[in-house]
Design brief:
The complex is a heterodimer of chains A (about 500) and B (about 475). Chain A is mainly beta. Chain A has one helix at about 1-15, and strands spanning about 20-45, 50, 55-60, 65, 75-85, 85-95, 105-115, 130-140, 140-155, 155-170, 175-185, 210-220, 225-235, 240-250, 255-265, 270-285, 285-295, 315-325, 330-340, 355-365, 370-380, 385-395, 400-415, 420-435, 440-450, 465-475. Chain B has about 475 residues and is an all-alpha fold. Chain B starts with a helix and ends in a 5-residue tail after the last helix. The relative contact order of chain B is 0.04. The chains are: A mainly beta (about 500), B mainly alpha (about 475).
Chain lengths: ~500, ~475
């Protein structure tokens, strides 16, 4: 926690101590209170297990138990005690420029957090996380970055501590960038050697991997093409951790028509990774549709053994459409059907579906400038898990200052492979107060009520209440940059 | 109500009458034409036109010789010249002398050559006729089409004149200002800097500009005023703001694709952009990448405010853009970073938990099993499965404990573990959110357990062995086939 406080103090003090011509600092604070009932693993001797008429095994007090062949004990879950968590996070995002050298700017993004009631809420460790901290030097044809950086491209979320250098030929629409550094774990700002990424105490590298890659872009009048190559090398064994290439393109040959697509190829395993192509048409501002095909294939680093298990992907067809027939009424629908590739593992003992589908319908209606309502229905049916249900919201806004939203929903979610059919309802209230362009408060509370329909005593529910309070404070040296429309999707616009 | 209206009407009439009483009666000009038979020469009343030591205007006694109240009614001329301000660079005596030498004519002809139209009768006097000036100076074009160097021959710079703002506001617009590319465009700047004097020596700024404009006029648009020599050659004078200049976007900015193209154009010709755009102008949108604004000048004293930019979404951000943006963001992340700070993405795409819930819909926590299992989206792009999924599943009791064979989770199918292969290959990512590698190696190892081969369709053992033999040794030890 001391490191967290020190880090935040540094972040706040930086703008004051450095004479930057301009800076923009955003501070976000968030506190959540969660109360729910936990679970507890229990076991009984095999000799105490009862057998039902259908062959299922139960404990004398009604819990379905699982018994290992040849084992002396059978295990099951009991309802645990009530658990209270209060995760709190504070994050800061800083950009400074005008540091004396034209083209030089500094960016930093850090977060501190912890569970205030002493529990261990997922994601709150370590207490201080440095997401990004780099200096950027940019001239007409050159960009250079040094420090902790996160790249998010076709090949995913890649973080590293190192350098990136890019060059561009503006007249030709060409740009290229190369980077090299010590990598962070996928989807995380922690190194792969962190114990926090090894909850099962399984295979873990002893050194951070070396990550290197090149990106290239070509922008022309009717679209963009982006290609990237990335390799990660284990510094300890000099083996590859991954080696992939990806390409994406976005073409808009005529107005209101766009084609987006991309693909990945895993050079290490010699297999095509996730790929897709989608066509979007928006012939009118009140109507639009898109459709496409997609291949999804999971990717695993080579320092795990998961790739050797030959995970298969699925092919899907998907489409969506939206229309605003009158006024502020919007109707939308989407659907996707997916089919897994052959696994060559069929067995008479267990039959698992090899395809699934999902679809959703929704409507949004604006009632005057202040009220907005939305209602959605979704169905997902596939191997592993399914769900169907609806959700809706009503929001009221005073204009630019206050927005109040009430939302709720209900769903049925049968879980395959286990005894569970649960019905879940929830209701929430959310308030957003924008005091001014710089200061923004948020308070929300959501109640979840679950009814699990299990044939045994383990049908305890997952009901819980969550209360979240947040504040955002923007500190900048130029008022011109404050009156920006929100660029993120808010709760009332889903 | 009627009474009130009547009172207001009477009040209005009284006000009009009172103001009429205060109107000066002596505002009439001297009528030269009516006196054409009285005065044979100009110098009899305007001796100063030829002799600067004498008054330019007649003495009151001269007028009173006739206007004595008996012969003619009295006039109120007291000898004080009219407060007439002009921007002419002119001395009568010098002009009269030069005229005499050039044409051998008398002073009267000299006066009439400027103050009457060609062919006019004696004493048909007008204010100065510019065309007569141009004729004499050998300029063959219309007054306001005169060459740049010619203006200063007759006119003072605006800053040196005593003209009022009201007078400046009535300046006529020369025809050159309507030519293509003059404004918006660079032509006006080229003209301002290309004028040359009689000996071919370039002017710092064309006299034609300085005659009607001063530096403050240019600052209505020009952010780069301190860097433009021609503008700096003009004297500052706030009266020049009487002529209003309105910043207009050039034609290139009307192109629907301008928003996408302007970055390349700005790198190609940053001087063109910095004419109208300040750093603040760029940062209105490019707040995430302030370095792009380095080529622009910061707003400040001596510079124009420049174009005021309002951030607005590009044409692609229509309809269900929030749902659609992922594909475009993947293909051209640099385009996104032009306007969006990475922290904005992280508001929704947090790389770990305990954070904002902006990306997923309300109730997502309850709904995520189905969507995650079938990978509605790629969870691993934002979430580290070990840090995010596993840690939460552990605290919820959704984890393998001890030997896989205990199978306490998949309790609806007692034989699940005997036929789990299909589920595992279809959604291995879901499996590893609860299971560790050792769970699988209990059976799927070449060195121990049941020696079940986990390799399936498409497995290229040779290739993977070349890339990372350590992965093979986890099961095969040193005896990698």
């Amino acid at each position: 926690m001391k490191r967290a406080i020190l880090g935040l103090a540094l972040l706040v003090a930086l703008p004051a101590s450095l004479r930057a011509q301009g800076y923009l600092l955003r501070l976000d604070g968030r506190l959540q209170s969660v109360a729910y009932r936990g679970v507890r693993l229990d076991s009984i001797p095999l000799s105490a297990v009862d057998t039902a008429a259908n062959g299922a095994l139960y404990s004398p007090d009604g819990y379905a138990v699982a018994c290992a062949p040849g084992g002396a004990y059978c295990s099951f879950y009991r309802a645990g005690s009530s658990v209270q968590n209060a995760p709190a996070t504070v994050s800061g995002d800083l950009t400074m420029w005008g540091l004396g050298l034209p083209g030089l700017s500094v960016h930093a993004n850090a977060r501190a957090g912890g569970d205030l009631v002493g529990g261990s809420w997922p994601g709150t460790e370590p207490a201080f996380q440095l997401l990004e901290a780099y200096a950027r030097y940019q001239r007409d044809w050159l960009t250079a970055q040094l420090g902790r950086q996160v790249r998010r491209g076709r090949l995913g979320f890649t973080g590293f501590d190192g350098a990136a250098v890019g060059a561009r030929a503006a007249g030709l629409g060409l740009s290229a960038e190369g980077y090299l550094g010590l990598g962070l774990a996928r989807g995380s700002v922690l190194p792969a050697t962190s114990n926090l990424l090894n909850p099962f105490d399984e295979f873990q590298p002893t050194q951070r991997q070396l990550v290197a890659g090149v990106d290239g872009d070509w922008r022309f009048g009717y679209g963009d093409v982006h290609a990237e190559y990335q390799r990660e090398v284990d510094r300890d064994t000099h083996n590859f951790v991954s080696e992939r290439v990806g390409v994406t393109a976005s073409l808009h040959p005529v107005r209101y028509f766009r084609v987006d697509g991309g693909s990945e190829y895993d050079l290490a395993s010699g297999t095509w990774g996730s790929s897709e192509i989608d066509v979007t048409v928006t012939p009118h501002r009140r109507f639009g549709a898109s459709g496409g095909i997609r291949l999804y294939r999971p990717f695993f680093n080579l320092w795990t053994i998961w790739g050797a298990f030959s995970p298969v992907g699925f092919h899907s067809y998907r489409g969506s459409a939206w229309v605003q027939p009158v006024g502020r009424l919007e109707l939308r629908g989407s659907g996707e059907h997916y089919q897994y590739e052959e696994t060559l593992t069929s067995t008479a003992l267990v039959s698992v579906a090899d395809h699934g589908w999902r679809w959703a319908l929704g409507a949004g209606l604006g009632l005057g400038p202040q009220w907005h309502t939305a209602l959605n229905y979704h169905v997902e049916s596939g191997p592993g898990a399914s769900s169907r249900g609806w959700d809706g919201s009503v929001s009221w806004t005073s204009g630019t200052t206050l927005t109040l939203t009430a939302d709720g929903g209900y769903m049925e979610r049968p879980l395959e492979f286990r005894y569970e059919q649960s019905n879940l309802g929830w209701a929430g209230l959310n308030g957003d107060l924008k005091v001014n362009e710089r200061l923004h408060f948020n308070l929300s509370g959501t109640w979840y009520g679950e009814d699990r329909q299990r044939p045994d005593a383990s049908g305890f529910d997952w009901s819980q209440t969550r209360i979240v309070a947040g504040v955002s404070w923007l500190v900048g040296s130029g008022a011109d940059r404050l009156s920006l429309p929100p660029a993120v999707r808010r709760r009332d616009s889903r | 109500m009627r009474r009130l209206g009547l009172l207001l009407a009477l009040g209005g009439l009284w006000a009009v009458a009172a103001s009429a009483q205060g109107t000066p009666a002596s505002s009439q000009h001297f009528d030269h034409w009516r006196h054409r038979k009285v005065f044979p020469t100009c110098l009899s009343c305007h001796p100063g036109a030829a002799d600067p030591s004498r008054s330019f205007w007649p003495k009151p006694e001269q007028c009173e010789s006739c206007h004595d109240g008996t012969v003619e009614k009295k006039v109120d001329w007291d000898g004080t010249p009219p407060a007439r301000v002009s921007n002419l660079r002119f001395k009568h005596d010098i002009h009269v002398e030069k005229f005499r030498k050039k044409f051998g004519a008398d002073s009267t002809q000299a006066c009439m050559s400027c103050h009457s139209r060609a062919g006019a009768a004696w004493m048909e006097v007008t204010r100065t006729v510019p065309e007569r000036c141009l004729d004499c100076h050998g300029i063959q074009v219309a007054h306001h089409a005169a060459p740049d160097s010619a203006c200063a021959t007759c006119h003072l710079k605006l800053a040196d004149s005593k003209l009022t703002e009201a007078r400046i506001a009535t300046f006529p617009k020369p025809p050159s200002h309507d030519s293509a590319g003059f404004y918006p465009g660079r032509h006006h700047g080229e003209l301002a800097q290309s004028a040359k004097g009689a000996e071919g020596k370039p002017y710092a700024v064309a006299p034609s500009c300085a005659t009607c404009h001063a530096r403050d006029f240019c600052l209505q648009c020009h952010v780069d005023a301190p860097e433009v020599k021609a503008i700096q050659a003009l004297d500052p004078d706030p009266r020049s703001l009487a002529i209003e200049a309105k910043l207009e976007a050039p034609a290139s900015h009307q192109d629907p694709r301008w928003q996408a193209r302007h970055g390349g154009e700005s790198r190609r010709d940053k001087a063109a952009c910095s004419t109208c755009h300040t750093q603040q102008s760029c940062l209105a949108c490019h707040r995430a990448s302030p370095a792009v604004a380095v080529a622009m000048y910061p707003a400040g004293p001596g510079r124009g405010v420049g174009a005021r930019i309002q951030r607005k979404p590009p044409s692609t951000h229509v309809g269900k853009w929030a749902d659609e943006h992922a594909r475009v963001a993947r293909s051209t992340p640099n385009s996104c970073s032009g306007c969006h700070a990475r922290s904005e993405c992280l508001e929704c795409h947090r790389p770990n938990a305990a954070s904002a819930d902006g990306y997923h819909a309300a109730g997502w926590l309850a709904r995520h099993p189905a969507a995650a299992y079938s990978r509605q989206t790629d969870c691993a792009e934002c979430h580290n499965t070990a840090q995010f999924c596993t840690s939460c599943h552990q605290s919820s009791g959704l984890t393998s404990v001890g030997n896989l064979l205990s199978g306490q989770y998949h309790d609806a199918q007692p034989s699940f573990r005997l036929g789990h292969g299909q589920a595992a290959r279809q959604s291995l990512e879901s499996c590893v959110s609860c299971h560790a590698e050792r769970d699988c190696l209990t059976c799927h190892s070449a060195q121990s357990g049941r020696h079940f081969d986990p390799h399936g369709p498409g497995f290229d053992a040779e290739r993977l062995k070349k890339k990372n033999p350590q992965m093979c040794s986890a099961c095969h030890g040193s005896n990698i086939p």
